[in-house]
Every structure is written in structure tokens, then in C-alpha cells.
Design the sequence.
DNA sequence: AACAACATGTAATAAGTTACATGATTGG
DNA sequence: CCAATCATGTAACTTATTACATGTTGTT
């Protein structure tokens, strides 16, 4: 099991939306994905040139008057194939599904729905376990002086899992209508 | 601005709860913090021995019959001082506050409350911005074919920020009663 | 007999951050 | 004229993951 390189898929995904530059990738991620993803120039630029060397993207320089020329990257068939293989493959990390959803139009709703169902099922299994923890913590200082603080966090975790579960259900319904 | 080493503070925090071993740290994090934190043995054991070398912890070997002896680590005054300095200091990363809360008993409620208030304020400022995005995305395919998928994610983000905001308010009230 | 849990650790590798370096253009 | 934004990139560093290595004890 190898590590997943989020940066690579963020960049590849952005490229799949149309020709773009490193600067624009950063802007987009900051503006519309900042509450869940981040990416730094130190990842973007090396990733972009690696992608080019590997045949996943092509580059065109655009002269902009006096300034530094823009480097506009475009995804290739090979890049698209790799992106789709990742999108279709299994999620190995928490939240990987959220990133995949950003490029959801590259899959059909019925490829996405089972993934959302699996995610929901996982949360459904975890919720009663968290409820147990809550009861344990409420019944006594089982975790020493930090118990009241863990309790706050666990309450948050419980509500958070519940939110994810509900969101999955709603999203599944929305995707079914899109089909 | 330097990177924060979560692993170091997770281990230091666990040590502040009483003498413990690397194996136990892993177990605890997995059992009670897994929905938000993770830590691997590849981080735990080197961190533990670094902490010892730096005078933040002391180690005692406990022979357990035939098996490999347990290495029980205990936090020192220096380690506690470092932990508290971090707890009192500013949060530089998203979710750092959640980790600090795990060891909340080392601070007074009125040291924690302003931190929660600041976090809530941040979310209160971001919520109307996300509401704007939602309107923008609902009014047309502003982000190409991925728009319906971004919309799902942004809805989640909005509800999530709302949840965090509400949780802050409830936690602040709980902490006020603890005072 | 097999398997999970207890228990510690290292080496190779990968992923991500920060600080730095450079310079044009646009708006107030 | 100053600050922000546009625009690209590198080097040093830190942080984290994975796979491997080893062996015991308790449970089924």
C-alpha cells in the first residue's frame, strides 16, 4: 500500500477542467477548497513539471508583454487516464472521497453512489461506538482530569459523524436525480 | 513561522496524563482520538527517545517476565513547561485547538474560552462567504461540469462550519460552568 | 496450531512547508 | 509611491508513512 499524493491529484484534477497555470491552481484551491484542502507553490510547480516530463501534461508559454511568461499546462490523454483510474479506484485515506467528488463529472453517478454508500455505512457503524464512549465519559472521570474536555471533543465528533452520514444520504439522492 | 509537530505534542500530552509507553500512546490515540488524529509507531518511538534525550521525559524499563521489557516514560518539569507553552501559545494551524483541548485540564477555563471565542468568530466570518458561493454555484454552471459536485461539497462545508460554530458556543458555556 | 494482541524499534522513502529569490503590473 | 496581485520557481528542511524486523503471551 503506497502513500497517496494528494497534490498530484489536485493538480491533475484542476488540469482536467481546462488549460491552466500553477498560479491559477493555487488561487482556485484557496478560494473554493480552502476549508478542506491546501496546496503550496512548493508542491504545485514541481508537480506540474513532473507531470509534463511523465507525459501527463503539455506546456505552452504565453508571453504577457514585459512580465514573466505564463506557463499554461494542458492535460493529455495519459494524464486523464491516470486521473480516472484514481477516481475509480478504492479510497485508502479518510476524506479522499471528498477530493474525488471535486472532479465528479469524470465519473457517472452510478460509479459515485456506491462510494458514498460505503462512506455512509462506515459512519453508521461508528456512530453507536461513539455513543458508547459518550456514556462512558459522562459516567465518571475515566480519563483523569481531561475527561470533561474529551467529552466536548467526543460530542463534536459524534455530531460531525452524524452530519457526514446525513450529507451522504442527501448527496446520494441528488446524484440519483442527475443520472 | 515554523511547522508544528503534532506528533511531539500528542506524545507530550499523553505523557502529561501519567507514565506511559509507546504502545499505550498508540492504543489511546486509536481508541479515543482516531476520528481526528492519527500517529504511527514510526513517529511515536523516535519522538519518545528524542524527548528523553532533550530532558522532556525520563525512561524506566520494566521487565515483564520473558518478553521484551516495557519502556515506561514519565514527563519532566521541562516537558510540562514546553507543553504548557504550546497550549498557551497561538494556534497556527486549523484544528490545532482541537488537539489542545485534549489536554485542556492543563489550562484554566478562562485561558481556553478566548481561544474558543476566536475560533467561533472565524467561522462566523466565513459562513456568509460560503453562503455567497452557494448562491453563485446554484445560479449557473460557473465551474464547468463539476459545478453540481462542488455544490454538494460546499453544502457540506457550510453545514460543517455551522456545526463548529454551534459547538464552540456550547463548549464555551460548559467551560464557564467549570470555572 | 493459529491468530490476535502485546511490545519495541529502524530504514527507506515520500510528502509537505517555509523561506528565499525575482520581477512586472495595477489600483489607490 | 506603496501595496497588492500577478507570476514562477528552488533549496533546505521537517514531518509522516510504510515496510520490515523480532519475539512473547493469551485466546480460540
Sequence:
Amino acid at each position: 500500500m503506497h502513500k497517496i499524493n494528494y497534490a498530484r491529484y489536485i493538480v491533475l484534477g484542476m488540469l482536467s477542467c481546462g488549460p491552466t497555470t500553477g498560479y491559477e491552481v493555487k488561487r482556485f484551491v484557496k478560494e473554493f477548497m480552502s476549508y478542506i484542502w491546501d496546496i503550496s507553490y512548493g508542491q504545485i510547480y514541481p508537480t506540474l513539471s513532473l507531470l509534463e516530463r511523465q507525459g501527463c501534461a503539455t506546456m505552452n508559454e504565453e508571453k504577457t508583454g514585459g512580465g514573466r511568461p505564463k506557463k499554461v499546462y494542458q492535460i493529455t490523454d495519459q494524464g486523464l487516464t491516470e486521473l480516472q483510474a484514481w477516481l475509480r479506484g478504492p479510497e485508502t485515506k479518510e476524506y479522499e472521497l471528498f477530493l474525488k467528488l471535486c472532479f465528479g463529472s469524470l465519473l457517472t453517478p452510478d460509479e459515485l453512489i456506491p462510494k458514498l454508500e460505503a462512506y455512509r455505512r462506515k459512519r453508521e457503524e461508528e456512530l453507536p461506538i461513539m455513543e458508547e464512549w459518550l456514556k462512558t465519559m459522562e459516567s465518571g472521570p475515566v480519563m483523569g482530569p481531561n475527561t470533561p474536555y474529551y467529552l466536548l471533543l467526543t460530542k463534536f465528533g459524534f455530531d460531525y459523524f452524524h452530519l457526514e452520514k446525513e450529507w451522504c444520504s442527501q448527496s446520494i439522492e441528488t446524484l440519483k436525480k442527475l443520472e
Q: What stands out?
A: Chain A touches chain B at residues 17-18, 32-33, 35-36, 98, 101-105, 126, 130, 133, 143-146, 148-150, 152-157, 159-161, 163-164, 167, 170-171, 174, 178 (CB under 8 Å). Residues 1-3, 21-23, 41-42, 45-46, 49, 64, 67-71 of chain A lie near DNA strand D (CB under 10 Å from a C1'). The mean pLDDT of chain A is 93. Chain A has seven helices and two strands.
